[in-house]
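Q: Please design a sequence for this.
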């Protein structure tokens, strides 16, 4: 089997659909079907079963796809080691980043990185900070960027901190929150962020919000707030400063200090030795300065 055959199996297993897999591989469906038949002949067994909804792996198929994935990973590892011998920055920079940072801060940094190192590739995963840590622990990425406190024992760089604000079109004072019947709009987030908001709310009001709306994404939460549906608590990183007719009231702790969220860049020392990771860290440091 060739590396392209390994890639075919991995993509088809991931998509579970011949049409989608063909599009990803830039081949026609008949060509994909023919190549799959040839691969199955080589292994002497059926690897996929066609259904009305797509294709599913057979037990034998699972074993072969796992083997294909390991071969592709080994090929990428060797490729990166070879690229390390060159003077230019090559290889793939693998980043897992908290979604909010990936939407509002990271693109500006990556723009500078790509401009300075056009031969490098970027693999980016976004999600909750707890998911980012899992990616790091399992060695799936070189660098993780998370929000909030962390007890990470490896390499750790503080990127920035930003304040939390109660944002609304009508409420101009914290004291007015309990007077409104409009809902508190919340976005799904990591447990530590959720707990921080709950602690502040309890200290401030000693009760629960009258009405709440829960949405999946912070951007949805922000747009609903800007359109006057309700009020929300948002980090400064999401606020551009161009918002009109919107009140932004900073959240204060028990010592009357601004409540802030920290953003950290994490990784293992071995990953920080890779040329593409070193180059990324240099770009980050310049951007922060």
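A: Design:
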């Amino acid at each position: 089997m060739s590396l392209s055959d390994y890639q075919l199996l991995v993509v088809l297993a991931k998509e579970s659909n011949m049409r989608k897999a063909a599009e990803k591989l830039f081949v026609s469906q008949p060509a994909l079907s023919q190549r799959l038949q040839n691969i199955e002949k080589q292994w002497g067994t059926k690897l996929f079963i066609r259904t009305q909804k797509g294709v599913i792996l057979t037990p034998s198929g699972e074993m072969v796809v796992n083997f294909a994935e390991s071969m592709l990973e080994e090929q990428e590892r060797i490729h990166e080691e070879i690229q390390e011998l060159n003077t230019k920055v090559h290889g793939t920079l693998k980043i897992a980043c908290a979604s909010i940072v990936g939407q509002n801060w990271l693109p500006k940094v990556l723009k500078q990185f790509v401009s300075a190192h056009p031969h490098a590739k970027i693999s980016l995963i976004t999600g909750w900070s707890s998911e980012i840590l899992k990616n790091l622990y399992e060695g799936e990425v070189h660098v993780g960027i998370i929000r909030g406190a962390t007890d990470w024992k490896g390499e750790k760089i503080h990127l920035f901190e930003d304040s939390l604000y109660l944002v609304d079109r009508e409420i101009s004072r914290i004291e007015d929150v309990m007077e409104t019947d409009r809902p508190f709009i919340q976005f799904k987030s990591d447990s530590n962020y959720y707990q921080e908001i709950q602690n502040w709310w309890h200290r401030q009001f000693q009760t629960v919000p009258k009405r709440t709306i829960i949405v999946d994404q912070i951007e949805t939460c922000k747009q609903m707030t800007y359109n006057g549906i309700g009020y929300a608590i948002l980090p400064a990183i999401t606020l551009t400063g161009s918002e009109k007719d919107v009140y932004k009231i900073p959240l204060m702790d028990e010592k009357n200090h601004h409540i802030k969220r920290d953003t950290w860049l994490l990784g293992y020392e071995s990953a920080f030795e890779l040329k593409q990771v070193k180059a990324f860290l240099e770009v980050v440091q310049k951007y922060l300065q």
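Q: Thanks. Anything notable?
A: The radius of gyration is 24 Å. The chain has a mean pLDDT of 91.
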